[in-house]
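Exercise 7. Predict the joint structure of the components listed below.
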Amino acid sequence: MHVDIAGALAERAAPGVDRSSLERLDDRVADAHERIEAGRADGEFGYAALNLPETTDIDAIRSATDRIKEATKHPIKTVLVAGIGGSALGAATLARAVETDADVETLDNVDPAATRELLDAAELNRAALVCVSRSGTTVETLANAQIVRGAFDDAGVDWTDRTLVVTGESGPLHRLADAEGLPALGVPEGVPGRFGALSPVGLAPVALAGGDVEAILAGGESGAASLSGSLFECPAYAYGALSYALAQRGATVSAMMPYAEALEPFGEWFAQLWAESLGKDGVGQVPQRALGATDQHSQLQCYRDGPESTMVTTVRPKHRPTLSVPSPDDDDLDHLRGSELGELLDLECAATTASLTAAERPVLRVEIDAVDARGIGELCYEFEAACVLAGELFGVNAFDQPAVEWGKDATRAQLRGEQTDETRTIDERDARWID
Amino acid sequence: MHVDIAGALAERAAPGVDRSSLERLDDRVADAHERIEAGRADGEFGYAALNLPETTDIDAIRSATDRIKEATKHPIKTVLVAGIGGSALGAATLARAVETDADVETLDNVDPAATRELLDAAELNRAALVCVSRSGTTVETLANAQIVRGAFDDAGVDWTDRTLVVTGESGPLHRLADAEGLPALGVPEGVPGRFGALSPVGLAPVALAGGDVEAILAGGESGAASLSGSLFECPAYAYGALSYALAQRGATVSAMMPYAEALEPFGEWFAQLWAESLGKDGVGQVPQRALGATDQHSQLQCYRDGPESTMVTTVRPKHRPTLSVPSPDDDDLDHLRGSELGELLDLECAATTASLTAAERPVLRVEIDAVDARGIGELCYEFEAACVLAGELFGVNAFDQPAVEWGKDATRAQLRGEQTDETRTIDERDARWID
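Solution:
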């Protein structure tokens, strides 16, 4: 990827980063890069994520998914992914950006209306299920997996032919795979869930759907090759360092605004990466998901003229498919004559970034060659590296998420009917309802 | 709707509002309510939006959509909406929450890949098009309308049988409707686009898809009946006033987290309403879209432990469809035995709000009876009223969006090949690419 940092400099934006401050920051980037490289070399927890493209066993993924393709009589049209958070967003991000033969649908919530709708719409004898949970106990994932299994049974199709498990080396999902002889893939050691897009967690559903996972990994490798000890030579570190510097100067919101619908799940993936990795000890940035050009008619007013807390990132692919706009009859619409839809989107992107700079709001521009398998692999890798670097600069552990445990414990205890500190807090909660 | 404000009080949260400050704020709410009622009575620009449920001509909507249903030979399976911002989000929000016979798909971007995919998937001889633009010149909307018209032609179906126009009293779309004899509905005077959900802008696509628009309007009327001059007696004003007070105390981000997938577009609708109405003069709140329970595994870490700038709103329907989780074989999953998916979602919602309060972060809980036609009509009305009230308290004009004009002018000038201040800014933009 390429990153334009001009719109984040103090001479253009407030908050903005002075050029001399950037030079000083680059010394810290060099140190952080050394720390990251040492962590990668030792396979340390978290840092090991940045080794993924090379440590991913593509043959194991192909072999597991081929087993399912051979066992099911009909070609697969729908790949259902039971997973939540990092166990869903990587697969969704890759699948939306890559050409596939089958749809990939994530069951990453426990909404009865939505789950029922999804199962009613799927042709279950042409569907497969991928269950993803490192512990094999994630309550949302296991509940959905049970429901899909029940739906396969009701439809008279053998769920054991079409279920793939991605899990750790023990736990209920691992036992289930053993007992039923299901193909199973491991979750890589040392890699937090949200950094697992380039592992079986993200790749297995895409492979099952017929996507070019080799090209995704090649993109990741190209991202890995781009890392270097200076933000002026490394787009990933430039992104991470400028985000950190802008946050320190007041940009505590980071709006991610790709100009491509196929990157909408990427925005959600980014939001998890940024929120869980950096949002701790009161620091970090609140990620805000947007979409160009749609959100020019929704969020742009606030980015340009609302609280001075938001930096905006646009992501633009240089190449898009063609789609010509048929010429209108009305003279008032003459400017549409002979236009291409993709050119229009590019013009809007240019207008948005210039409009933010004209209002002195910070903006980073990201460009990639195209939204395809290679492009998304590279983009995910480089944003992971950007995030790890930002974690070093913020001085936080980018690889844990301690603040979500309270709610997980509370849900589990409520389900089990146990009395704990958490359930007592819920029971004793006071309310002041306005009716 | 019902709003629980306990989690936003200073004794529970930081930022939080002291009880005595709330009493003082209520005097301002009373004044603002008088201002709003006067504006409604005079049909003043913007305030007129809150008269919508009663001023909406439901017979005109039914008559226009019935004409299309009679003209098309096959029942309509897909309603395509060409519109952007307020001309798309209202319809999308209502359609997702209401039972319909046909799918409502919005063309609210100009992405060639996504538009082509949507048209390839639609059965065009069972599709209809609703074009929505007050001026009739919105470039994204007109480009998409031209493309859909071309696709109808290519598929050999008569586009004039199946195209409905919602527009102002002049302009290219109005002329097109006149020339081709298309059914046309007006955009209500005095109502900014984002406040138009309960007008033909939001209702016509839903009516064409077979949704119960009368029940939506009944919900809106119930919302209108709930307005009163004290935040302690009016849920809409309680929401608006507490949002304002929290923003003044540092909560410049408002995360909207409905616990129902069918309210996901509502979150986008809210984001536009909040961003464009309140995000001006450096004040307001940056809206952040989330979804429960999914984002517990993504955003919650940052809400609980990231920058102290975020208030969270949960929206929970009291009634949900049933979907039982088949009992798992594994003893480690015994807590799932006999569980209902909807109950699990409710437990997670309770855990999230309690977990935020345990971390002293501000949270507002909203409850509605159900996600259905009446429920969504009421919800939209009351959030509009909340927004108008917040505008009064912030002291901004909630009904304009001046900061988006720069980009619109720039796009139009670029398309026309004109040299303007805006295009010169774009052309002369400096860049500092990191490659």
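Discussion. Chain B touches chain A through 139 residues (CB under 8 Å).
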